[in-house]
Amino acid sequence: MKRFIAAIAAAGVLYSFAASAQTYPVKSIVMIVPFAAGGPTDIIARFVGDHMSRTLGQQVVIENVVGAGGTTGITRAATSPPDGYTIMMGHMGTHGAAPALYPGLKYDPTAVEAVGMAASTPILIVAKKDFPARDLKEFIAYAKANAGKINQAHAGIGAVSQITCALLNSQLGINPTAVPYSGTGPALNDLMSGQIDYMCDQIVNLVEQIKAGNIRAFGIASPARSPALPDVPTTIEGGLPEYQVQAWNAVFAPHGTPKDIVARLNDALGKALADDVTRNRLLGLGAVLPGKAEQTSEALAAFVKAEVARWNAALLKR
Amino acid sequence: MSDLLANLYLGFGVALSLKNLGLCFVGCMVGTLIGVLPGVGPIATIAMLLPITFGIDPTGALIMLAGIYYGAQYGGSTTSILVNIPGEATSVVTCLDGHQMARQGRAGVALGIAAIGSFFAGCVSTIFIAAIGVPLSKVAQLFGPAEYFSLMVMGLVFATVLARGSVLKAICMILLGLLFATVGTDLVTGQERLTLGIQDLSDGIDFAPMAMGMFGFAEIIKNLENVETRDVVQQKIGRLMPNLEEYKQSAWPIIRGTVVGGILGILPGNGAVLGPFASYTLEKKLAKDPSRFGKGAIEGVAGPESANNAGAQTAFIPLLTLGIPPNAVMALMVGAMTIHGIVPGPQVMTKNPELFWGMVASMWVGNAMLVIINLPLIGMWVSLLKVPYRLMFPAIGIFCCIGIYSINNSVNDVVSTAAFSIFGYALVKFGFEPAPMLLGFVLGKLMEEKLRQAMILSRGSFMTFVERPLSAALLAVALIMLIVAVLPSIRAKRDVVFVED
After folding, report:
1. CA distance to partner chain B, nearest, from residue A224 (Å)
2. H-helix or E-strand containing A89?
3. Given pLDDT bands bounded at 50, 70 and 90, which one contains residue A148?
4. Domain boundaries, chain B
5. Domains in chain A and their CATH numbers?
6. To pair with B346 at 20 to 30 A between CA atoms, which of A66, A95, A207, B331?
7. Hey, is the C-beta of A291 within 8 angstroms of any chain B C-beta?
8. Residues A118 and A129: beta-carbon distance below 8 Å
9. What would the pLDDT profile of B216-229 be if each residue is shown by its tens digit?
10. Of the candidates A179, A208, A285, which has its C-beta nearest B323's C-beta?
11. pLDDT above 60 for B493
């Protein structure tokens, strides 16, 4: 009996220490990915989580909770106990555009604890292969002249392809016919068969089709060309410098997670991004990794504020 | 031709290495298990196993993951036949006649013909992929939103044929299924529709809770009604393997099912779900005595099971040759390839020939393994039916609940299964059948999406469906089939009217 009481007492002590950074983590950590397994955000989460597990000494388990443009999963993660055992991989949509898209959003992207930036994937403007334009300038001219005739595809409300193209359209001042698909695959299929004129999406989804000549890329919305597609000019080179957008992915923890735990997680994330194997895996996706200064929690928190403001301005205008 | 042989030689060289054989076996075994366990589907399993594949080379990893996928199609028929629970949309049709066969003590025969049909379909479609996969992938490009919508309309007409009883009731059920499919977030505006403010409904109703509730649980409640018929399934076991007569009856359905399922499997947007329904319809229409269907006709198991497996394999064609995933499982395979540094696209075949041909060859190897795994298991599965029903039904209930919970880690899914089982039971009591409703539900979402895409593209003109030749042809077939299906019942009613006069 004595032993039993001692065991209970020990368990209680252990529990009370569980939330402190010295012992954290004592059990596996669940990282909620708000999108389906196999998508770009999921893959980035798995690469990063794999290395974070080694640094933290506990498994980082990826749990995919899909729905409503990623907000279902983030809602669940954001309302979990802030003990560091439930964290989330948020992205440009869930922690940037969501407040503009979902009026009844049950979490505040600027209120959750920012852990750190993981990786971004550049956005490309692509068109069907016989689109009557040779470069971005001609594309813009044609799109403006034929705004009523051309069709733009996206992978559903809240998808990266939808919000980034909405930004493009608002910058160009055009309002083309937007055709919604459930996912990038079917949208790409109709772009390849020529029913759709253009779309915007992450490089990883498009790179092989561009290389094969099934679709054409008019510009990459990043400051520098991508090593994966050295022939595709940036939007700055192409004459649309204001169109700079990347699908970023970053780790967050529920509001109220102790600062020291956030720091441990940020440290583990930083080590993952410094690891050569993880780096190369991410770069293989065409991803862009944050520099040292962008890796801090503070930098991410400031970035999220700016993103929410940016997307509110771009998406609520019309 | 010599190219093909050289490529296959390369492929078998890869697939028959000891390590890949092992991985293929593990995949098939896991696939069979998750197929048998209701609720646990290939998507959840492959997602769970993704991190494990980090340490394996990409070819081996994909061979294993592919094995899980088509292995699950084999295993899925087991629960459909034994306990009337379809784990996936593609095994709904197998329930219709498969479970009736089990009730007649022919569970072993049903399971046997399902395995053999699947094996045949698997082999043929593997050859299909190897020989004409590339030209076939062009077919996918012919299907725009309009064509797809017309194909789905044709699919809905199949549903009227699925009904065992009244055509009118079947049409009501299809419409109800379509209505259920409209629950969720509107594709174009992002508004929530018919969700009653419930967050979990914002992406619509899930297939698994609906199918399990309406088939499995409703069946259990029905069985519990009276003591006598409760033990129907286990009273006699009968033969384990089909006899010559049954092989003869099944031969053509298997071949036709393979062709139908294989062709539909290539289409983007999960055309494979139509395969088993189409095959069942075809068999029922071709049968000399269609009234046997729904009462344990072996053709109703052999055809759809072959179609199901053929579709599962040809679904790899758009993935491997175009880099475009036709369904959720294939999208996951894209992820698996990407994780291993291979971005799927049209060049996979030339850039990674050992991966492409290794996978093709492994599919054949995997199908052979599945037959070897499954045939001896039939005896074991059938002997499960000897378990007294008072022990069996709680066990089925628990397994189903665990399975449903595991799909989304959501308690609400279990609750909605309970709601659907009560609804399903009520429907059975009033003589409505769940199968047409499920087909309506499965097709509903796709149909709405494609209809709206087509209408947006045509700027609101319905003519797009008849102006595009392929779409017009599909609609014409649908119309003819509808007339064929409805005419006899109209005529029959007339006869009744005349008699009463």
Report:
1. 22
2. strand A86-91
3. confident
4. 2-144+200-416
5. 2-120+248-315 (3.40.190.150), 122-238 (3.40.190.10)
6. A66
7. no
8. no
9. 888 888 888 866 55
10. A208
11. no
Q: Does A193 touch chain B (CB under 8 A)?
A: yes
Chain B residue numbers with beta carbons less than 8 Å from the beta carbon of A68 are: 185, 199, 202-203
Chain B residues whose beta carbon lies within 8 Å of the beta carbon of residue A63: 409
Indicate yes or no: CB of A183 within 8 angstroms of CB of B331: yes
Question: What's the mean pLDDT when you consider all of chain B?
Answer: 84
Interface of A with B in 144-173 (CB under 8 A): 151, 156-158
Q: Contact at 8 Å (CB) between B125 and B313? A: yes
CA A192, A195, A197, A202 dihedral sign is negative
CA angle A87, A93, A97 (to 5 degrees): 120
Coil, strand or helix: which one is A117?
Answer: strand
Interface pTM, i.e. ipTM: 0.81
- pLDDT digits 0-9 by tens, B302-361: 999 999 999 988 888 888 888 888 887 888 888 888 888 887 877 788 888 889 899 989
**CB-nearest partner of B202 from A67, A180, A182:** A67
Residue B211, CB half-sphere, CA atoms under 13 Å: how many?
Answer: 30
**Closest C-alpha among A114, A126, A172, A122 to residue A146:** A172
Rounded Cα distance, A53 and A62, in Å: 11
Q: Which residues pair with A63 in a beta bridge?
A: A32
Query: Contact B345/A65, CB-based, under 8 Å?
Result: no
Q: Do A204 and B409 touch (CB under 8 A)?
A: no
| Global confidence as pTM | 0.84
Nearest to B203 among A47, A68, A192 (CB): A68
Across the A:B interface, residue pairs with CB atoms under 8 Å apart total: 127
Q: Find the helix or strand (DSSP H, E) in which B311 lies.
A: helix B299-314
Tell me the nearest-neighbour CA distance from B114 into chain A, angstroms. 31
